[in-house]
Amino acid sequence: MRFDLTDLRLFLAVVDAGSITHGAADVGLSLPAASERLRDMEATGEVTLLNRGRRGIAPTEAGEMLAHHARKILHQMAQMRGDIGQYAKGLRTSVRIFANTAAITEFLPERFGSWMAAHPQIDVDLKERESGEVARNVSAGFAEIGVLSSAVETDNLILRPFATDRLVCVASREHPLAGNGPVLFADLLGDPFIGMAGGALQDHIEGQASRLATKMKMRVRLRSFQGICRMAGAGTGVGIIPESAAKRCQRSTQIAIIRLRDEWATRRLSLCVRDEGELTPPAKALFDHLSHTAK
Predict the structure, then answer these.
(1) What is the pLDDT of residues 13-49, one digit of tens each?
(2) What's the burial of 42, exposed, middle or buried (CB within 10 Å: 0-12/13-18/19+)?
(3) Nearest to 255 by CA among 172, 160, 198, 162
(4) According to the 3-state scheme, what is the secondary structure of the chain?
(5) Bridge partner residues of 238 (DSSP)
(6) Around Cβ 108, how many Cβ atoms within 10 Å?
(7) Nearest Cα to Cα of residue 239 among 214, 222, 215, 262
(8) How confident is the model at residue 130 (pLDDT cuts 50, 70, 90)?
(9) Which of 44, 144, 200, 242 is least buried, going by the fewest C-beta atoms within 10 A?
(10) Residue 13: which of 55, 54, 59 has the closest Cα?
(11) Which of 79-83, 95-99, 207-211 has the lowest mean pLDDT?
């Protein structure tokens, strides 16, 4: 049987996610392309690798064996690229990082800049995911480094402090709650919301509304924090964004910043890896750099 590296990455992603849909997304494949690859893997090997049921996907005994070997192969490939990259002048290598929205938008760009300029042969493959997915993917070996909220389960991962991310409400200066001190998220659920057009942060916020057995009244979805602040300042609705972004936007928009009292609104972000000893040299260098620049 012949499986290529994409087959192995996909198979591991599906097994760890328990879902073909989520596994396909983790490796950047469409659902039809992923399903076809998985069928071809089983047909080529003349073996059933996955049990498909209403509650998701589970590997067969043969599938467990394939997953075991796939992890070893992919890890060895990553180590080979990193080790050779130290000696091969023109060989490019990359470090794969999964991070939540706040880390990607507010913290990582500044901290990547000087390091990447000093390492021109190393690229960064950066993916945005919810914190729970970050933990799962780092644990499974799909990403070498993760940046996530410390609120998620990370029992098998090594953590280092990275940053504090506070979420705040942005609203017009005439909003009834402006200037009255911190509020609960529940106090805002009667307002229309301006949200992000997708992304891990928006999923996290809407998940908090679901825990309160309600839904946010979404009036419009935008692609930037600046856009959310402009519309909030005009009285269109309220938005929830990182405090650092709100303060940056406050200089050019007519917004009030309202702190949230909910515990989930203050998140300690952490760097995570599965095992520092397993990191490729480029990943170890970047992990150390990000750890030393933690705030």
Answers:
(1) 898 888 899 889 888 899 999 999 999 999 988 899 9
(2) middle
(3) 172
(4) CCCCHHHHHHHHHHHHHCCHHHHHHHCCCCHHHHHHHHHHHHHHHCCCCEEEECCEEEECHHHHHHHHHHHHHHHHHHHHHHHHHCCCCCCCEEEEEEECHHHHHHHHHHHHHHHHHHCCCEEEEEEECCHHHHHHHHHHCCCCEEEEECCCCCCCCEEEEEEEEEEEEEEECCCCCCCCCCECHHHHCCCEEEEECCCHHHHHHHHHHHHCCCCCEEEEEECCHHHHHHHHHCCCCEEEEEHHHHHHHHCCCCEEEEEECCHHHEEEEEEEECCHHHCCHHHHHHHHHHHHCCC
(5) 193
(6) 19
(7) 222
(8) confident
(9) 44
(10) 59
(11) 79-83
Contact criterion met (CB below 8 Å) for 206 and 277: no
Could you give the CA distance from residue 287 to residue 278 in angstroms, rounded to a whole number?
Answer: 12
- Cβ-Cβ contacts under 8 Å for 247 (sequence gap 6 or more): 257
In terms of DSSP bridges, do strands 122-128 and 93-99 run parallel, antiparallel, or are they unpaired?
parallel
CA distance 121 to 45: 38
- The encoded tokens of residue 287 equal 């992990």
d(CA 244, CA 168): 9
